[in-house]
């Protein structure tokens, strides 16, 4: 398992981000509070989502988003607002 994790971390290191100042990911926090699985925190390969138990809210580290859409598919309430980042913002995958 650790070699799989290292392989994923190596691949994530090759990704270039040009972050916007505003998040393109907009979860409905009221739905997140009642979500039992918190699936987005598990399926996101880039670890964009974290559940903060003290504040009872989902923290979104949108700057790391790979724009793969796994979070939207996994969200049991379909309450994750998601749009493509503006213009030249977001993720760029290295070529070669």
Key terms:
globular; 96 residues; alpha+beta; two-stranded antiparallel sheet; Alpha-Beta Plaits; 4 helices
Write the layout of secondary structure elements.
Layout: H1 2-13, E1 15-18, E2 25-27, H2 29-34, H3 40-43, E3 49-52, E4 57-60, H4 70-74, E5 80-82, E6 90-93
Antiparallel strand pairs: 1-6, 2-5, 3-4
Outline of this structure?
The chain contains four helices and six strands. With 96 residues, it is α+β, with helices and mostly antiparallel strands.
Please describe what this structure looks like.
The strands form three sheets. A two-stranded antiparallel ribbon has the order 1-6. A two-stranded antiparallel ribbon has the order 2-5. The mean pLDDT is 86. The chain has helices spanning 2-13, 29-34, 40-43, 70-74, and strands at residues 15-18, 25-27, 49-52, 57-60, 80-82, 90-93. The longest helix is centred in the N-terminal third of the chain and has 12 residues, at 2-13. It has a domain at 24-86: 2-Layer Sandwich (Alpha-Beta Plaits). With 96 residues, the protein is α+β, with helices and mostly antiparallel strands.
User: How many runs of DSSP E, i.e. beta strands?
Assistant: 6
User: Quick check: average pLDDT?
Assistant: 86
Terminal CA distance = 27 Å
- Measured by DSSP, the beta-strand proportion falls in 15-25%
Reported for the largest beta sheet, the result is: 2 strands, antiparallel
Helix percent band: 25-40%
Architecture of one domain in CATH? 2-Layer Sandwich
CATH topology of one domain: Alpha-Beta Plaits
């Amino acid at each position: 398992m650790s070699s799989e994790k290292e392989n994923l971390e190596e691949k994530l290191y090759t990704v270039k981000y040009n972050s916007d100042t505003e998040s393109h990911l907009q979860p409905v926090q009221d739905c997140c509070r009642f979500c039992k699985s918190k699936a987005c925190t598990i399926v996101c390969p880039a670890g964009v989502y974290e559940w903060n138990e003290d504040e009872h809210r989902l923290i979104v580290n949108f700057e790391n988003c790979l724009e793969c859409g796994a979070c939207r598919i996994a969200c049991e309430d379909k309450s994750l607002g998601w749009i493509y980042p503006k213009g030249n913002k977001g993720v760029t995958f290295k070529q070669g």
